[in-house]
Write a structure and sequence with these properties.
Blueprint (H helix, E strand, L loop, with lengths): L6 H50 L25 E8 L2 E8 L7 E5 L10 H9 L3 E5 L17 H14 L9 E6 L1 H8 L9 E5 L5 H13 L7 H12 L7 H8 L3 E6 L24 E6 L13 H20 L6 H8 L4 H4 L4 H18 L1
Parallel strand pairs: 3-4, 3-5, 5-6, 6-7, 7-8
Antiparallel strand pairs: 1-2, 2-4
Helix pairs in contact: 3-4, 4-7, 5-6
């Protein structure tokens, strides 16, 4: 019998078979290639992000106070006793400073912002000492007089405050003193996030604080990289968990709700360092169920990240000083001799420069007093 299957038909069938095989091979390659691409992308992103992240958290060197106006402990060493202590935080030994140890009122633990140290907030510490409090300030890891090659990352401030409180709780002479927390920026994040631990805290004041390490880092990356930054979120979150453990997963909201103690959240509406409407604690107030929380939003000249601390007179004076200081730099082609810089700073009125925002600190004082009354 003669076949009806012509040579042309056979060739067509063969070509059809080849096309089918090619489609199958493409699907297999796609199915294999996508996971390989994703894994490779994740690994490369992790390595790059690891180096970039670590490069952002450098060591904070002790300030040469001869080049800065304002208040530092050395200016008041004859008036205020200071006891220097050390305590461990991970592999590093941190340096702490105790003032007003004869107080029987309460002890305020001060957590500083990143890039500074305990002495950066001596004007605020002095205010609390003058109001009868014992004050315990300390330099975080990689900051000022504490050990550590770098500040390592955002959750480090929580771990350091946890270590400071653990040390404090082991000291017999402080057993009967209520503990209050006060922190700004990195420290404002720490004093609320540390509430995820089980320390006995009477009240907290958080100024310009971040809700979580994940949020602030992811926010910065998106600002830097645009839409592509969103692809880095899972990488950055995992990286922080590897570096800092469970502390990286903490949020201020969870800590505040868990502790159920009085908390005062303060934030400037024009803050560009910790944006008011995105990653700040105050931006998450609708998630805070603790009924003992109150809020202050600062505005105008007091609406920025740090300007909220200082009086209007101080801020105006600092602007004028900076204008004159800029002229000194112009005079020496942006490289004035050290002696000339010291000479200029010696003319600055430190009392005016360090004048606090009385309205804000009256609110803070009243908040702490009310919280202490509730513990009696």
């Amino acid at each position: 019998m003669k076949s009806n299957f012509t040579e042309e038909q056979a060739l067509a069938e063969a070509n059809k078979s080849k096309k089918v095989k090619r489609r199958i091979n493409k699907k297999k390659a796609f199915a294999i290639g996508i996971p390989i691409f994703l894994v490779s992308f994740f690994i490369i992103s992790f390595i790059v992000d690891w180096f970039i992240y670590n490069s952002q958290f450098t060591h904070s060197d002790v300030l040469d106070t001869a080049l800065y106006g304002g208040y530092f402990y050395t200016d008041f060493a004859d008036e205020y006793d200071q006891r220097i202590v050390t305590f461990p935080s991970g592999d590093n030994k941190l340096t702490g400073y105790l003032y007003g140890e004869d107080s029987n009122k309460a002890i305020i633990v001060v957590a500083h912002g990143i890039g500074g140290g305990a002495d950066s907030y001596f004007a605020q510490e002095k205010h609390f000492i003058d109001n009868g409090y014992c004050v315990f300030a300390y330099d975080c890891t990689g900051s000022y007089m504490s050990e550590g090659k770098t500040t390592t990352g955002f959750p480090q401030s929580v771990l350091d405050l946890h270590a400071a409180l653990t040390w404090l709780e082991a000291q017999d002479n402080f057993n009967n003193l209520p503990v209050l927390l006060f922190g700004h920026s990195w420290g404002g994040y720490a004093v609320t996030n540390v509430l995820n631990y089980n320390h006995d805290i009477a009240a907290v004041v958080s100024v310009a604080g971040v809700n979580s390490a994940f949020e602030i880092v992811n926010n910065e990356v998106v600002d830097m990289m645009g839409v592509f930054g969103y692809t880095q979120k899972p990488v950055l979150n995992l990286m922080q968990i590897i570096k800092f453990g469970k502390a990286a997963t903490f949020t201020a909201v969870n800590g505040i709700n868990k502790a159920d103690i009085p908390v005062l959240i303060i934030h400037g509406e024009d803050d560009t360092v910790v944006p008011y409407k995105t990653c700040s604690i105050i931006a998450h107030k609708d998630k805070i169920t603790n009924p003992n929380v109150s809020y202050i939003t600062t505005t105008g000249v007091h609406g920025a990240h740090s300007s909220l601390f200082w009086s209007a007179k101080s801020l105006e004076y600092v602007d004028a000083v900076n204008e004159e200081y800029a002229k000194l730099y112009e005079q020496y082609d942006n490289d004035p001799p050290y002696e000339e810089r010291v000479k200029f700073i010696s003319t600055v009125d430190d009392d005016v420069m360090a004048e606090l925002n009385a309205e804000l600190f009256n609110s803070i004082d009243s908040f702490f007093e009310k919280a202490l009354d509730a513990t009696k």
